Amino acid sequence: MGIFRYFLPVKQGPNRDQTGTKHGENTVIRRIFNVFSHCMVKVFFDLYPENVKFRYQLELLNLYVMANYVDGITGPIRGKLGNIVGSSWKGIPYLKLRPERRKPAGEKEMANRNKFAMSQSWLRPIKAVVKCGFNGYTDRVEGFIAAKSYLLKNAFEGQGKDPVINPSLMKISIGDLPLPGNITAAKLTPNQLQISWDTSDNTANRFDQVMLLAYDIERGRAIFNTTGQFRHVGSDTLQIVPASPERDYHIYVAFVAADRSRQSDSVYLGTISF
Description:
Helix content: 10-25%
Structural class: alpha+beta
CATH architecture of the largest domain: Sandwich
Order of helices and strands: HEEEEHHHEEEEEEEEE
Number of helices: 4
């Protein structure tokens, strides 16, 4: 049965299950569920022997089994299988052991966790923007994950328990597409933001499109357009509902090729209140 031997009863020491983990009085119950899960998997294989796309998923009180088989028994595993975690990225399957914590997290680790959580929170409202802006960041990393990596490495200021994200150090797009000159932002009306740029550069594709972002970071409110006006138009606008009292919006601009094959670095234009 290959990997399903994991579910079979094995010799155990005092207060330990087949993984070698202590479980006290719950050992017998857990062992019963392991045997039951093994039987269930065998029944499924007996019922569907010719299904090459066979998938199974068992979740038994969140004990040992919660995994998916893709493309049959020889395919990759996705999910948790005991202390083994199966996952994939860019089509490459991985198997790794789930680590067991042996000591409390230290101050440095807690600081890193805090920065990680802050990055997630900061990027969540603009997920659609960075998906476009960080497209093709590397061969294996792009989109939200790439943006988070960039933020963690470049946009934090301060040390220890009180780091802060400096919006002027963050980019919402990374790429080699040329930017037009003289990009400016202005409050055109009480509820309209205008972005303007120079159209005199004849070497760039006139059908590149502008990406606009106005981001109220404190409220987590983002107004954006990833398919704005063409480069040759020279300006575009965003409609922003004004608030009382006014809120500060951080303004970012970038350009993306009409065929979405590449994009430019973004430009930070400061804040405008609405």
